[in-house]
Design goal:
Elements (H helix, E strand, L loop, with lengths): L2 H16 L11 H7 L11 E7 L2 E8 L1 E3 L4 E2 L6 E2 L5 H13 L9 H4 L12 H6 L23 H6 L17 H15 L3 H13 L5 E2 L14 E4 L2 E4 L14 E3 L1 H12 L6 H7 L18 E5 L2 E10 L2 E8 L4 E7 L6 H13 L18
Antiparallel strand pairs: 1-2, 1-13, 3-4, 5-9, 6-9, 7-8, 10-11, 11-12, 12-13
Helix pairs in contact: 1-9, 3-7, 3-8
Pfam families: Beta-lactamase
Protein name: Beta-lactamase family protein
InterPro entries: AmpC-like, Beta-lactam-related, Beta-lactam/transpept-like
Length: 375
C-alpha cells in the first residue's frame, strides 16, 4: 500500500473540493449539471451536494440549496448528510479488514461468532449477510410506527427472535436486508473488541482521509456542518430528520460529506485499506444456485451497463436520499447527496456519469429497482 501517494492524492482532492489557493476546479459539463439539479437550487429548498471523480481526481464539485431550511444554512461540499444505505460499503469494508487479518472467515456461521444470534438462523454465514442472501427478516417489520424509542443495532437481535423462520433458505435467493448489516456491525464489535463507531473511525475513516465522517450516536458524537433532513408538504418543506430506526448504525448510520466520499473513492482505488484481490470480493456479484447473478457484492450493487462494469448504491432514510455510481474500469465516480425525502438522485447520478462517459442519457433501471425491499 502506497500511503504517501494516497496522502498526496488526497491533498489534491481536498484542494479541488474546498478551494485551496491557486486551485481552479475543472468545470467541464458544469452548465448541463447545474440544469439537472435545478430542483435542488434556491433559497427555500433543501439541497444537494455533487462530486464527480475521474482518474482519481475531482473534476466537478457542486452544492445546491440549503443544508438546513430552518436556519437558511447553505449546502456546501463540506455539508454532512446521513448516508443511509451508502453506509453499507463501510460496514462491508470493516468485515473485510477483519477477514484480511485472519480474525474472521466469510464462511463462518454467524451463530458461532455472535452471542445471542437466534439459533434458528444457524446456517446463516457471514457472506450471506454481506450479499443479502441470508433470508433473515427485516427488523423494521417488528417496529411499530407508533414506537418513539429509537432502535439500536443490538436491539435487532431481539427483534429477529420474534420469528422462527427465514424468507428463504440461506444462500438460495437475494432479498435486500437492513437486518443483515445491523448484525454485521455487531460482529465487528464482537470480533474487534471495540465499538462499531470507533472501529470505523480508527480503521476506515482516518486511514482513508475522511476527516469528519462519523457513525453518529446522539449524545455521544457530533456531526460537523450537519445537513438536516426535510420532506415536501403542501405548505412547503418541513423538517423530517429522524425516525425510530435512524439510530441503527450498521445499515445506515454514517454521516459524511462530499469531501469525505471523494477521499473514500481515492482510498478504494489506491487499495489503501485492503489489497486489490480482497477489494475485488466486494465488487463481485453473488452467484445463486441456479447460476443467476444476484447483482450484489459486499456493500455494493454490481451489474453491467452498456458493456461496462457498474458499481452503485442508493440510500433512503428519514429526510435523506442519496446515490453513488462508479465505473471502475473507466475510473469514473459520481456521488449525489440530498437532504430531502423523495427524488431520484440515482437518476441524476447516472445522467451526470453519462456526460463524462459520452453515452446517451437513456432511461435504464438501476439494479436495486428489481431487488425486493431495497432501500
Amino acid at each position: 500500500m502506497n500511503r504517501p501517494a494516497l496522502g498526496a492524492v488526497l491533498v489534491s482532492v481536498l484542494c479541488v473540493l474546498t478551494g485551496c489557493a491557486g486551485t481552479a476546479p475543472n468545470v467541464r459539463h458544469a452548465p448541463e449539471v447545474d440544469a439537472l439539479f435545478a430542483d435542488y437550487s434556491g433559497p427555500e429548498r433543501p439541497g444537494a451536494s455533487l462530486v464527480v471523480l475521474r482518474e482519481g481526481k475531482v473534476v466537478l464539485s457542486r452544492a445546491y440549496g440549503l443544508a438546513d431550511v430552518g436556519t437558511r444554512t447553505k449546502a456546501t461540499p463540506e455539508s454532512h448528510y446521513r448516508l443511509a444505505s451508502l453506509t453499507k460499503q463501510f460496514t462491508a469494508m470493516a468485515i473485510l479488514l477483519l477477514v484480511d487479518e485472519g480474525k474472521l472467515r466469510l464462511e463462518d456461521r454467524v451463530v458461532d461468532v455472535l452471542p445471542g444470534f437466534p439459533s434458528y438462523l444457524g446456517e446463516v454465514r457471514i457472506h450471506h449477510l454481506l450479499q443479502h442472501t441470508s433470508g433473515i427478516w427485516d427488523y423494521e417489520a417488528f417496529v411499530p410506527a407508533t414506537q418513539t424509542e429509537q432502535v439500536k443495532d443490538r436491539d435487532v437481535l431481539q427483534l429477529l427472535s420474534r420469528t422462527d423462520r427465514t424468507y428463504f433458505p440461506p444462500g438460495s435467493a437475494v432479498r435486500y436486508s437492513n437486518s443483515a448489516y445491523a448484525v454485521l456491525s455487531l460482529i465487528v464489535e464482537q470480533v474487534s473488541g471495540t465499538s462499531f463507531a470507533g472501529f470505523l473511525r480508527a480503521r476506515i475513516f482516518t486511514p482513508s482521509g475522511m476527516a469528519s465522517a462519523v457513525a453518529h450516536q446522539e449524545g455521544v458524537s457530533t456531526v460537523s456542518q450537519r445537513a438536516y433532513g426535510h420532506a415536501s408538504r403542501e405548505e412547503g418543506f418541513v423538517p423530517r430528520d429522524q425516525s425510530n430506526t435512524s439510530a441503527v448504525l450498521g445499515d445506515g448510520g454514517v454521516y459524511a460529506s462530499g469531501v469525505d466520499l471523494a477521499a473514500w473513492d481515492v482510498a478504494l482505488d489506491s487499495h489503501a485499506l485492503v489489497d486489490a484481490k480482497t477489494q475485488a470480493l466486494a465488487w463481485t456479484p453473488v452467484k445463486l444456485p441456479d447460476g443467476a447473478s444476484g447483482r450484489y457484492g459486499f456493500g455494493w450493487f454490481v451489474d453491467e451497463d452498456q458493456g461496462r462494469t457498474r458499481l452503485s448504491h442508493h440510500g433512503e432514510t428519514c429526510g435523506f436520499t442519496n446515490a453513488i455510481v462508479k465505473y471502475p474500469d473507466q475510473r469514473l465516480t459520481v456521488i449525489v447527496l440530498t437532504n430531502r425525502a423523495g427524488g431520484a438522485p440515482w437518476t441524476l447520478a447516472q445522467q451526470v456519469a453519462d456526460l463524462w462517459l459520452g453515452t446517451a442519457a437513456t432511461p435504464r433501471p438501476w439494479p436495486f429497482e428489481s431487488m425486493a425491499n431495497a432501500h
